[in-house]
Amino acid sequence: MGSSSDQDIVGRIRCALEAASEIFTRYTSGKIAAEYKSGHDPVTAADREIDALLAKKLLREGEGWLSEESVDDDRRLPCARVWVVDPLDGTREFVAGIPEFSVSIALVEQGLPVAGGILNPATGETFLGSVGSGVTYNGSPASASRRTRLEGALVLASRSEVARGEWQRFQNAPFKIQAMGSVAYKLARVAAGLADVTFTLTPKHEWDVAAGAALLLSAGGFVESLEGPLAWNQKRPKISGLIAGGPLLRDELSGFLRPHMSVVGK
Length: 266
Prior knowledge:
The protein is α+β, with helices and mostly antiparallel strands. It has helices at 3-24, 45-58, 91-96, 159-163, 183-191, 206-218, 250-257; strands at 35-36, 42-43, 64-67, 81-89, 102-109, 112-120, 125-130, 134-137, 140-142, 154-158, 176-180, 197-200, 204-205, 222-224, 238-239, 242-245. The chain folds into two domains: 3-142, Fructose-1,6-Bisphosphatase, Chain A, domain 1, CATH 3.30.540.10; 154-263, D-Maltodextrin-Binding Protein, domain 2 (3-Layer(aba) Sandwich). Helices cover 29% and strands 27% of the residues.
């Protein structure tokens, strides 16, 4: 993106997040009814309302759309620019009253995540940025961790994965583990240098992680699938898992996780 286009895109994302924040003032986390989709994933009226709002605020002629709460179709595939959004990532936490949920917006351009924004309305945190402009955390410049060793690093883990016992294998690891909801929120915190690493060995959809990936790349960090570089705006928008963090931890983290890759998909 050029500088003027970059400013336009980041501005659109900022405005969309601000509008989404207003919607959350009409809902109370922990006191909202939820329905359950196939796979037992919860969905609320807030998910659907924010989805419609984001489409209205973000989409322009010729741009594609991929959202967890919209019916997908192949019209997005040939688009040079595609919005990849999750209107409410961490709906389980939202329903339970745990302040770890977020609105997640990414722009994928020519198959690469180039701009993103993530809002946690419960904590008032906004993460915003692009590859061209860098990342801000609540308006202040931020960047990914420069830690050089996994020893003592802060690793953000999926709250649900920890509850299922999937992180027991890492209990003697050299890093500190903090359980947290919303993979988008975890990625945003790593992008802003508030944590060093996050990873998941279970499959995710593009809408779960695209905004966080855009922020991490914009902040100088790294993000990749368990097999290597990620491909975006795919016909089947699903990835095997994700590892992400500060750039100087990439090799050590990949080596540490390699023996555990056989659990993918379980």
